[in-house]
Every structure is written in C-alpha cells, then in structure tokens.
C-alpha cells in the first residue's frame, strides 16, 4: 500500500485511514495468530474457527469484520499474483451487524449543546450540526471554499489527524456542494470576526495548522458535563443534520449529495427509518391517487 503497488479494485491508492486501520487490526488481533504462517497453509476452516472464537468472546460484529479485512486484502493480493490459488476468506460466515437504528439528538437538545460549548469552538459544532461534513472535512475546510454571499460551501479535501496530511474526501462523491442555511451563516460570520481571518483553514488552530479534534471534543465534554448534558461527537452531529433535513422535507436524492454518500441506497440504509410514510400513510396516499384517477377515467368514459 505504501509503495502504491497494491491498490483498490478500481486501481486507486488506498487512503491513509484504510492503510492505518488495516495495519492496526493486523497487529492487534491477527499477527499473533497467523503472522508466522505461510499463506498457502491457512485454510477456510481455520479462519472460520478464528471468526467463531472472536464472536464467542463477545467481540462487536464490526470489529470482527475489521479484523478479517487485512486477511482479505493479503489473500486478494496474493491470489492476483499467483502466490495462492485459493482465497480462504471467501465465504466466511461473519456475525450480522446490529440493525439498531441511529437515534440522533433532538434539535432542542442540539441547541442546548451548542449554546454551552466554548465560544471559540461554537462555529465548528454549528457547522457539524447544520451542514453535516465529516470530521476530516471540517478540519480540512478552507475559507476559499466558503461562499457566504451565495450561501454554499464546497467540500474538496479532508485532513487525516494521524498521518497529518491533507487529501481527497472519502470518495469521489465526497467532493460536493452543501447549502449554508440562514441558521448557520451567523456562526460563520462571527467566527471570521473572532478568529480575525478569512483565508486559510476555517477551523484551524492557525491559518495553516489544523485544529486538534481530540482537544475540541474534550473542551465540549467538559462544558456539557458541567451543564448535565449528554455528549455528542462530530459524527453524531452528522446524523443530526441528516435527521433534521429529512424532517424538514429535503428529498433523499438531495440529502445523498449533501452527505457525500456513494449512492441513495446508502442514505436509505442509514436513515430510511426517518423518512415519513408509515403503512397507513402510504395506503392513504395511494387511495387518494387512485380515487382521482378513477374519477378522471369514469368522467371520460361517459
């Protein structure tokens, strides 16, 4: 991955976050078990037993999937180069991920959370809640991509705190334009006055040095604890933005673009339960449509 000789299926370099997560999973949970074993001596049954052991010890389904990821990648690389003829990770039975629905904070709770964070940090939390960028996109946002006059912001890059590098967003769909609401604009204007700059990083410690997101969270947690409020993360604020957009009537296609999802299927998988329309409502809408259609048809048939 580092040399660029092993790439994604679409022949793109792996992102630093994927590279880091893969190495961490390997060192923490795979190396001791398989690190000194020849690839052609690892079979499907052995890997399935490994998965079953992790599951029996109560490991989260997503963590188990992440643990298998470096093995999947290694065997994909080896098979493509003729080093092994069989990929033993094919067909592994992994525990099913939880289908628990995401429950973001209510707008009222969000308003209280926003009102109590330190003044210097309020704008980034407002941006997270009212525009929904990912954490790395917030840290990498430049003032040149914020158009207050036209009320839009352009997401064009992301910052990885671990590698301390700027790069493209999570996917090609991450490069997008998001509307700046009338509720968000005052926070950004105040932040520009407070920081004293309108170029460079919007939420940087300086114009060129990104904000420390861990300290940002710690400062907010201290304030929320003092006011007996339930903490949220920047990622939870992203879910809040999605839920409020849906409640406001933003259609799924538009929300998909604003969130930077790869497809509308992803949007529905994550937030489909929030879209209006239960069984009785759906039936009523269809009945109304059919009634009008039949009335029109009967009128013309006479």
Write up what this structure looks like.
The chain has 302 residues and is mainly α. It has two domains: 1-100, Tyrosine recombinase, N-terminal domain (DNA polymerase, domain 1, Orthogonal Bundle); 107-274, hpI Integrase, Chain A (Orthogonal Bundle). Helix content is 52%, strand content 5%. The chain has twelve helices and five strands. The protein has helices at residues 16-34, 44-56, 61-80, 107-116, 122-131, 135-140, 185-195, 213-226, 234-247, 252-259, 264-271, 279-301; strands at 146-147, 152-155, 158-160, 165-167, 176-179. The strands form two sheets. Strands 1-2-5 form a three-stranded antiparallel β-sheet. A two-stranded antiparallel sheet has the order 3-4. A hairpin with a 4-residue loop joins β1 and β2. The protein starts with 15 loop residues before the first helix and ends with a helix. The relative contact order is 0.09. Mean pLDDT is 87; it is low at 295-302.
Topology:
Elements: H1 16-34, H2 44-56, H3 61-80, H4 107-116, H5 122-131, H6 135-140, E1 146-147, E2 152-155, E3 158-160, E4 165-167, E5 176-179, H7 185-195, H8 213-226, H9 234-247, H10 252-259, H11 264-271, H12 279-301
Antiparallel strand pairs: 1-2, 2-5, 3-4
Helix pairs in contact: 1-3, 4-5, 5-7, 5-9, 10-11
């Amino acid at each position: 991955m580092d040399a660029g000789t092993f790439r994604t299926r679409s022949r793109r370099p792996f992102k630093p976050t994927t590279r880091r997560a893969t190495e961490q999973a390997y060192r923490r949970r795979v190396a001791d078990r398989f690190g000194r074993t020849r690839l052609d001596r690892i079979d499907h049954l052995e890997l399935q037993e490994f998965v079953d052991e992790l599951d029996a010890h109560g490991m989260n389904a997503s963590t188990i999937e992440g643990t298998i990821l470096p093995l999947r990648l290694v065997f994909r690389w080896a098979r493509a180069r003729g080093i092994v003829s069989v990929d033993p990770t094919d067909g592994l039975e992994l525990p099913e991920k939880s289908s628990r629905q995401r429950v973001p904070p209510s707008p009222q709770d969000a308003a209280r959370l926003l009102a109590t964070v330190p003044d210097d940090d309020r704008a980034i939390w407002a941006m997270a809640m009212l525009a929904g960028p990912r954490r790395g996109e917030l840290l990498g946002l430049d003032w040149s991509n914020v158009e207050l006059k036209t009320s839009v912001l352009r997401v064009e890059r992301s910052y990885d705190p671990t590698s301390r590098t700027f790069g493209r967003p999570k996917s090609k769909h991450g490069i997008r334009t998001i509307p700046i609401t009338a509720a968000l604009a005052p926070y950004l204007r105040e932040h520009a006055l407070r920081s004293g700059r309108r170029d460079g990083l919007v939420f940087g410690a300086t114009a060129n040095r990104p904000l420390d997101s861990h300290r940002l969270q710690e400062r907010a947690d201290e304030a929320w604890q003092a006011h007996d409020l339930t903490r949220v993360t920047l990622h939870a604020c992203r879910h809040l933005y999605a839920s409020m957009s849906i409640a406001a009537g933003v259609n799924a296609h538009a929300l998909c673009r604003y969130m930077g999802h790869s497809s509308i299927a992803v949007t529905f998988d994550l937030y489909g339960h929030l879209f209006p329309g239960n069984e009785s409502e759906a039936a009523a809408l269809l009945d109304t449509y059919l009634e009008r259609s039949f009335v029109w048809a009967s009128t013309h048939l006479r």
